[in-house]
Amino acid sequence: MNVRAQAILWTAQRASAAVLGLCVLVHLATMIYAVRGGLTAAEILTRTHGSVAWFAFYSVFVLAIVVHVPIGLRSVLGEWLAWRSPSRDWALAVLAGFLWTMGMRAVLAVFG
Amino acid sequence: MKVLVKRNSAFQEFEVPRYPSQTVLDVVTYIQRVLDPTLAYRFACRVGMCGSCAMTVNGVARWTCRTHVDKVVKSDQMEIAPLRNLPVIRDLVTDMREFFDKWAKAKGQFSGSLTKKEDFQKVKPDSPKRVAVDAGIECIGCAVCYSSCDVVAQNPEYLGPAALNRAWTLVKDERDSITIERLRAVAGDAGCHSCHTHMSCTEHCPKQISPTAAIAGLKREVSMALFRKIL
Ligand code: SF4
Ligand code: SF4
Ligand code: FES
């Protein structure tokens, strides 16, 4: 991977961290608000199903995770296991695909 | 005072007399001159200018010529070892080649565009760029920061705080003519983007320089260059 791509990865990680920070706050606030009156899981699901806005919000959340996690792991693998060969990037691309699939599966189940 | 000196992975014990204003370098010199002439160590100026006397004293990298024994001795005992993160040549002498080669890799040489036929460029001492240069320019190349940095230990390719700090002083130099090449040289996994900002370098630099701030500046400049599509 060339230096420019490495710098882009770093910038993407910082940007995704900012998005994640915001998403976590919104996520926690709505969760606390939603269960305040003692809602059951079934009741929550009837409200969330079909909500386009929440679907979009959580899709962005998942995307931020897909960007952020593999880039962070890339440094950890390089520094702790000295895994710096191109195979590391391929493995992380697979991980990103896995995270996206699992994340979107959950988003579809709740907001689909 | 009991002094343990690291020699080829084992510590050798010496008994050294204390006296007022004694420096760690004085202790090492006493051992070499009086107790064991085979002890190898390095120094030149003895006044904190040449950057050749740095060692690990009680686990912390320090310039030994300006470190008073009073400040570091613990229950009348002191441990002296070579700098970390550099190959040891013998006893307390490390091979600094890699350290300085990385300055070159980070494009640490000044490169101007004016010739001797032109008038010299005037740089205002209080301009923001010159102030940024001033903050990092007094580096003596002692490698204390390099030896204190865990990222250097984990990633042998990492250019390290001193080389990146040097690059930063040139990036902020108004006369510099190869800023983009230099940013390319210091970006990425071997450069500023690997810094964890844990500030060991800044904590231990004897010249109170903050390579951490310099590296943060480089990250900013690289991001700007990326954004402007000139990297
Ligand atoms: S702030 Fe960066 S350069 Fe300084 S010690 Fe930490 S990782 Fe190394
Ligand atoms: S930045 Fe400080 S610690 Fe590092 S080489 Fe220069 S003077 Fe020594
Ligand atoms: S001997 Fe020159 S800096 Fe210590």
Q: Would you write up a description of this structure?
A:
The complex is a heterodimer of chains A (112) and B (231). In chain A, 88% of the residues lie in helices and 0% in strands. Chain A is mainly α and 112 residues long. Chain A is elongated. The N and C termini of chain A lie far apart (38 Å). Chain B has 231 residues and is of the alpha+beta class. Chain B folds into two domains: 2-94, Roll (Ubiquitin-like (UB roll)), CATH 3.10.20.30; 97-227, Orthogonal Bundle (Fumarate Reductase Iron-sulfur Protein, Chain B, domain 2). Chain B has helices spanning 24-35, 69-72, 97-105, 128-137, 144-148, 150-154, 161-171, 179-186, 200-204, 211-227; strands at 2-7, 10-15, 54-57, 60-63, 77-81, 88-90, 93-94. In chain B, the strands form two sheets. A five-stranded mixed beta sheet of chain B has the order 2-1-5-3-4. In chain B, a hairpin with a 2-residue loop joins strand 6 and strand 7 (93-94). In chain B, helix 7 (161-171) runs antiparallel to helix 8, helix 7 (161-171) crosses helix 10 and helix 8 crosses helix 10. The mean pLDDT of chain B is 96. Classes of the chains: A mainly alpha (112), B alpha+beta (231). Residues 43-46, 48-53, 63, 65 of chain B line the site of FE2/S2 (inorganic) cluster.
H and E string of chain B? EEHEEHEEEHHHHHHHH
**Integer-rounded radius of gyration of chain A:** 17 Å
Mean pLDDT of chain A: 94
**CATH architecture descriptor of the largest domain in chain B:** Orthogonal Bundle
Total domain modules of chain A: 1
Number of strands of chain A: 0
Question: What is this structure, in a nutshell?
Answer:
The complex is a heterodimer of chains A (112) and B (231). Chain A has 4 helices and no strands. Chain A has 112 residues and is an all-alpha fold.
